[in-house]
Amino acid sequence: xxxxxxxxxxxxSAVGTARSCYIxxxxxxxxxxxxxxxxxxxxxxxxxxxxHHAHAQLIQQEAAGEKTxxxxxxxxxxxxxxxxxxxxxxxxxxxxxxxxxx
Length: 102
Fold this sequence. Notes:
Blueprint: H1 3-30, H2 34-63, H3 72-101
C-alpha cells in the first residue's frame, strides 16, 4: 500500500484512536476523575494532531499542483477526522459539566 491509501489509513488510525480517547475522557469524568479526563483529552489531541498533519500533507501536495484522485478511502478518512473533532468538542463540554457538578 502506498500513496493516497497509506495516508488515508494513517489518518483513519490516528483520529480513530483520538476519538476513543475523547469518549474515554467522558467516561473518566463521569467517575469524578476530572484530572484524568483532561489527561485523556490531551492524549486524544496528540493522536488527532497526527491525523491532521497527514491530512495537511495531502492539502500541501494538492496546493503544489499534485492533484489527488477521488477515493472513497480518503473520503472516509476525512469523515473520521471531522467526527473526531466533534467528539473532542463534546468531550470538553461534558468534562466541564461534570467538573461543575463535582
